[in-house]
Amino acid sequence: MTRIVAGAAGGRRLQVPAGSATRPTSDRVREALFSALDSAGLCSGTRVLDLYAGSGALGLEAASRGAARVVLVEAARAAVTAARGNVRELGLPGVSVVAEKVERFLASPAAVVGGGWDLVLLDPPYPLGEDELAAVLARLVGLLAPDALVVVERSARSPEPTWPSGLVRERRRGYGETAVWTAGPAEEPTAP
């Protein structure tokens, strides 16, 4: 059973795509991740992009905790159906689902948000290649707010993501079989 951990929809159950290859983030990992994000002020009033959203659990957790805008991007039909059902059932404001491949969405005008995304959550399928993940991370660089945070969830056996020059790794946390990497925009050098 997957559920929203805290916030306005705390305790509410989420649909997960039946018979699909999606792997919902465990409640334990979401609770730890969002406790840290809440402490850093990265939930309330923020613009959140959830890539490879699956059922939408990560983005909906952010919405439950007060995110102003959440966009869930997912290409798998069963996962899109589950995410849309979850959005409808929870009735949280400012949440939308985009049924599209992540790469295509990031190349579209819809990916550009005034002020940039404050929080980007990536929970790609474990089989996603490192080169594809690196390309997605590189595409994000120009779409982020100055104080944004990028969160990548992978198998603990996966190598560290290849961070593009515009992102700086902040930390790695391990939760059993899951590793969570965080990075932020590189500070631009100041003119002499």
TrEMBL record:
EC number: 2.1.1.171
Classification via CDD domains: AdoMet_MTases
GO molecular function (one): 16S rRNA (guanine(966)-N(2))-methyltransferase activity
Lineage, broadest ranks: Bacteria, Bacillati, Actinomycetota, Actinomycetes, Kineosporiales
Methyltransferase keyword on record: yes
Highest rank taxon of the organism: Bacteria
InterPro entries linked: DNA_methylase_N6_adenine_CS, RNA_MeTrfase_RsmD, SAM-dependent_MTases_sf
Signal sequence bounds: none
Keyword Transferase: yes
Keyword terms, alphabetized: Methyltransferase, Transferase
Name of the protein: 16S rRNA (Guanine(966)-N(2))-methyltransferase RsmD
Organism of provenance: Kineococcus gynurae
